[in-house]
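As a warm-up, study this chain.
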Amino acid sequence: MSSSSSSSDDDVDTSTPPPPPRDKLIIGNMTAERRRRQRQADAAASVAAAFAYEAQPLQAVMSDQTREQLLFEVENQEPNSYSDDEPLMEPDPAPEVANGKSIKPKISVATIPEFSEVAAATPAHLLGVLVRLVAPSKSEYSNELKRLATDVVVVLDIGWCEDESMLDFIKGALLIIIDNMSSRDRLSIVSPCPEPRRLTHLRTMDEYGKESLRKIVSSLFFLAEVGDVLDILVKGVRVIDERHFENPATSIILLSNRKSLIEPENPKKKAKETASRFYKLPESIAPRTRGINEFKTIPVHTFGIGPCHDAQVLSLLSSSSLGTYSFVESYEYLPDAVASCIGGILSVVVRDIHLSFALTHGKIIWTETGQYSRAISEMGSLCDVIIGAMYANEVKEFRFEISLPRLKLKGQSSDKMSSTLRVTLLYCDCIGESHEDSSTKEILRPINPSPEGCTPSKAVTENKIYRSGAFAISNAKRKADLNKFDKARQILISCMVDMSASLRSGDPRTLWIYGEITEIAKWFGSRDLYEKFGNAYATSFLCSNAYQRGTTRGRYVPGDDEGLDFQAYTTPDMVDLVNEVRSERHRNGGKPGKN
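Now compare it with the structure written out below.
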């Protein structure tokens, strides 16, 4: 396109008519802006298409001079600042009002002590208290979107795909993300080829934006030699950090099929160098201090594809940012794995969740909260947990181990004594409403407890069994990392023996964790098996357990256990999208995406 024709499109009438209404002005500006973006996108797509090749080295397709010229054109399209994101859609209207009160869906909270009664004359040590949170469903909200509008950046750390079908699966996964975003969401893609760069600014996913992104995805290609994953990721972080407008929810999705460039032979040296580089990452994905700052952390959801990816680096990225790490055994499982993940990302209904657990007449000894930040007060009477966001219908459980002192008996007055458990939640919902909800539960301290009060809670017991299984997997992995595979398997087998009696109860979660231990023990048989599958599988499980979020492990995709009572942190939206994608693929003759 010539410069004259380009400028003619942007000619402006110099007359001064009356200013239009503000809503029309916004729409007009957005339309002009999108026309300009489209011209840039078309030019970028043309350049990208020129780079495409069919399983041949790039040098064989074009001369060095032509390649250098095209590289120069691509570099010139990269702005110095990434503050060129498209404006946000107008917010949803105020919530509906019923009987003079606004409708505010809330997080459901249940406080479950291990025993509802404890004898006054008997001190209780390590008494478990389970706090269960259940996020509201999207159907409970009256606004149109029924969830938080989301900004997503997809970062591709992909080496050359020697098989064309591999590239097709990657493109199919990207199309699933594009197809399922709404006009209030925005998307950007960062590619490593021909060098790490942003393929498009943060673009609104209306039909116009989706079609533009589909064209870019169709022209994607990858080279054998690309930059380091952390350098590529920083580009994606810049898209978020430098944006001019902000949607209330944000996520980065990182797809990787190759090892990190940090590959010293000594594992300890590699870990040290990796940690050093991580310290230099932006705080928005690797905060230096935990706590309230995590509300601003961008979750990085990483996907390691095949046996050659770097599980250590990807899991560190996800754990430092409150994201997830999924191990995808082969490319054919990638579209479903990404569908499950984006099904959760696009169903966030509450954010900035801060839980406080307070106790009277007792002390908090320790907590089982996974990787979520927590802090126990000096006196042991209060514990704060920073949770962040929750998906629709998502369930999270936190266990607090407390001790209760022996009470001094004064006649029969001890019958009226109790320890009060208070749970307070602070959070913001998807329509911008702030909540502060509190609930209390009493642990009675009679002289003679009733038989019912001395019966242990089934929910607390099952949680302890499940957590003991996860703890065994963590310990076994530490041994396997040191090449002590016999000891690693011994830890797992011993745990399975201890759990065998609990299997008779038929608890779905106990059955599930027993199956996971059995699967992991199989991959801990030798160094070759561990490096090929065992390390990545166990790492993905531990990540899922740490944040209570569903992850793909090998061939298992969250949603595959739809018929089971326990679905390993899977939410209905994740299951529905996986099923929808599979049905669509079946209708399209095996091709992902919508017609």
